[in-house]
Amino acid sequence: MDKKEKILKSGDWTVDFVKEANKNITDENVYPICIPTYKRGVTCNTIQFLKNTKTKKYLFIYRDDYDIYKEVETNPEYINFEIVFVDIPKKGIQPKREFIRNYMIERNHKQIFMIDDDIEKTVLGITIKNTSPKNKRDKIVQLQEIPLIEGLKTTQYSFERNKDKNIGVMSGGTFFQITFRDFTVENELSFDKLCVNCILLNLELLDKYDIHYTTEKTWEDFDILIKCVLNDINVCTNRFISYKVVPREKQISVIFGEKSINSNYSENIASYTMNLYKIWGDIVEVKNVDGGLNDSGALKKLHNRVKKNEKIEIKFDDTMLDLCNRNDVQGFIKHTTQLVIDNKNRLQKEQYTKIENFIKNLNIDDTKNQKDFILDQLLQNKNIPNKYAKKYVKENYK
């Protein structure tokens, strides 16, 4: 019986997967951990989560921040840390990530973890049998917090088990992905997904194909994924592990939306997105919903076209491109906000039509409580999202 079969047959699959990973990979064997950090000091979450682990950890800081980080080298409670000064003329997270990439390749590292300094928690998704009468699904996901180092070992173990898949960048999944209800060997990895927060970089492939981080003020994570895809290198997430960062107060809401038109933070986000459009506007399919990048869809469709050697053409709207070229940030925000509103109305109209057709075919007993009966039937229909079912019934039945 091979390892995959052994894990699959051992009960709670993801729990056993983490145990298997931690049995096979010691702290000393975890890939070097690179933490680009700025102004947070040694009290930042990521450093504290890893302070007692024997894994080699590099803090990449600007020289004038040394005083707030020096404790990792002077206090024996901090194990196996090394400070690296990032002496570059252009500051920012994008050039700092490029510096890390080059620094580690020059020192012959083949794989590394690059981790944000504000990790809040590491979460494992566990498939369990559903016992809730309110939830119609057979299986649901229970979320269990695990130590960051255990998550890293699990991601690394998953990467090493799948080395034949030509993976260049890998991370944990998003909270949306982690709610997948049936984790198995077959869906251990999710390909062409956005990799953020805690990233495993296969420097061996990035170096071979001369793939670099952009130094422009834009979404550097998405940028490097596009470069991998264009070289037919896989990017993926370990679907049942999620590395969650500390919520940023102004980032909790939708990037672009009715409430954020006048937000300074939205202006910053908009300029990042506009810069990415200007860099990749001739090849990347962008979905004009929520005013941003449909990262998974864009990467997947781009990858399919690369594999089929198809001509890659521009797909997003001319108005957005024109606003990007004119650097009209406020115009860009307003345009994308209207797209959000239009798309929301379109989706609701489509779903309401589907709901009305479904209700017409129901055998409704007049003596029954129509509202409860109809809602129950709608919630059992997997083709109708629950939020539209509840909203429709609330608006149309007393």
Quickly describe the structure.
With 398 residues, this protein is of the alpha/beta class.
How would you sum up the major sheet? 8 strands, mixed
CATH class of the largest domain: Alpha Beta
The CATH topology of the largest domain is Spore Coat Polysaccharide Biosynthesis Protein SpsA, Chain A
Strand content: 15-25%
What does this structure look like?
This protein has helices spanning 3-8, 13-24, 45-50, 71-74, 93-106, 148-161, 175-178, 203-208, 220-230, 264-280, 295-307, 318-325, 329-360, 370-380, 386-396; strands at 33-36, 57-61, 81-85, 111-115, 119-129, 139-146, 167-172, 189-191, 198-202, 234-238, 241-245. Helices cover 42% and strands 16% of the residues. The protein folds into 3 domains: 3-246, Alpha-Beta Complex (Spore Coat Polysaccharide Biosynthesis Protein SpsA, Chain A); 254-341, no CATH class; 362-396, no CATH class. With 398 residues, it is α/β, with parallel strands linked by helices. The strands form 2 sheets. An 8-stranded mixed sheet has the order 3-2-1-4-9-7-10-8. It has a 3-stranded antiparallel sheet with strand order 6-5-11, with helices on one face. It is globular. The chain contains 15 helices and 11 strands.
